[in-house]
Amino acid sequence: MRLIIADDDPGIRYILRSIVEGFGAEVLAEAENGHHAIQQTALHKPQLILLDVSMPEMGGFPALKYLRKAYPELRILMVSEYSQNAYVREALRLGANGYLVKSYCASELRPAIQAIMAGRTFVSAPVANYQSTANGAM
Amino acid sequence: MSRHASRVTPHPDGALKSASEHTRGKAAAKKPVTGRDDDIRALTRRLFTSQEEERRRIARQLHDDVSQRLAAIEIDGDQLEANLPPGASEAKRAIRRLRRRITKLSEDVQRMSQLLYPSIIEDLGLEAALQSLTEEFGARENTVATFSSRDVPADIPLDAAIGLYRITQETLRNVSTDAGRTRAQVSLRGSAGSIQLQIAVSGAGFDLNAEQPGLGLLSMKERARHIGATFHIHSTQADGTRVTMKLPVRAAR
C-alpha cells in the first residue's frame, strides 16, 4: 500500500504516518495543503491519499475535486475533525471513497483503508447514519 | 473561498415596516433619514463586521489549535489502549472513560467554534450550512425540521450568507426555548435578481407587542438591514413564527 498524507498539522501527519506504517503501508510523501497534495500525487502516483478537509491556501474539497477528475483510479479518504452530515455528503458527492473523523483514526483508519481499497465506501461510525438526500420535503 | 461582497446590490436604507414586523418600508418613509441615522448605520455595519472577524479568528484558533490537539490526544488514547497487555482490564476501562470525556470535550469545542463562526458556509456554501443548522435543530429538539432549496445562486456574497445564517440561527434559538413540540421548515429560494429565505416554526418565540423589543429581534433586524435584505416577522401563539427575508443579488443565477 503506497499512500500520501495531506494535513496542515505536522502532529496529525506524524500520528497518521505512525498508524499506517504500523500495518505495513508505505508513506510516499506528506503534504500540508491542497496544492501540495496535488503536486505530490502527480510526482509519486500513490494508490491512496489521506486528505484533510480543512487546510490553508487550498482545502481538501477543492483538492478532492481536482484529484478525482485527474486520477479516477486514486482512492481518496477524507480525514476531518468535522462530524456533521453536511461534510460527509459533500465529500461523497465530490467523489471521495470514504470519510473518516480524525479522532477515530486509531481504531478506524485501518478498516477504512481496507474497505476503500476493496472498492467499498467507508464512513466513520460517528456519522455513519448520515442522510444522503439533500433536501427534505416542505 | 472567495468573498463576493461586491456582487450584492446594497440598499441605501433598511428601516422598519409592516403588519407584523418589517424592515424597509412605511415607517422609514415617514421618518426622513438624518445624518445621525447614517452615522449609526455605518457604526452598526462596522460593529457587525468587526464582531464577525473577531469571532472568525477565535473560531479558527479553536479549530486549528485546540481541536487538532484534542484529536491527537484521542488517537493517542486509542493507541495506548490497543497496546495494553491482555488482562489489563481495569486500565482499559480507565482509558475508555478518559477517551469518552475527551471526545465530549472535543465535540463541545467544535460546537463552540461553529457557534462563534459558521465556517461551514465557507467550506460548503449557504445551502449546506442552512441544511445542517436545520438538521441540528431537529436533532436537538427531537422534532421534525426540514430544509428545502431551489435555484439558489452559487455566488452569494459571504457577508450576506453569514447574515442569513445568523438570522436563521437566532430564530431557531428563540423558538426552541419554550416552544415545546415544534416543527420547523427552512426554505431558500432563488429567483431573478433575488433570494428569499423563510423560516417557519410552529411555536411563538417573539413578543412583537412588547414595548421594548428583545435583543434577539433587534439584532435580526439589524443584520437584515446590514446585508440589504427585507425582513418580515410574524409570531403568535396560534400561528407560530414565520420569518421571511428577501435579498437582492446582482446577476442571481
Characterization of the model:
The complex is a heterodimer of chains A (138) and B (253). Chain A has 138 residues and is of the alpha/beta class. Chain A is built from five helices and six strands, in the order βαβαβαβαβαβ. Chain A has helices at 10-22, 34-44, 60-70, 85-93, 105-117; strands at 2-6, 26-31, 48-52, 75-80, 98-101, 122-123. In chain A, strands 2-1-3-4-5-6 form a six-stranded parallel sheet, sandwiched between helices. In chain A, strand 4 (75-80), helix 4 and strand 5 (98-101) form a beta-alpha-beta unit. Chain A starts with a strand and ends in a 15-residue tail after the last strand. Chain B is α+β, with helices and mostly antiparallel strands. Helix content of chain B is 54%, strand content 18%. Chain B is built from seven helices and seven strands; from the N terminus they run ββαααααβαββαββ. A seven-stranded mixed sheet of chain B has the order 1-2-6-7-5-4-3. In chain B, a hairpin with a 2-residue loop joins strand 4 (183-191) and strand 5. In chain B, helix 2 packs antiparallel against helix 3 (89-116). Mean pLDDT of chain B is 78; it is low at 1-19 and 25-30. Chains A and B meet through helix 1, helix 4 and helix 5 of A and helix 2, helix 3, helix 4, helix 5 and strand 3 of B.
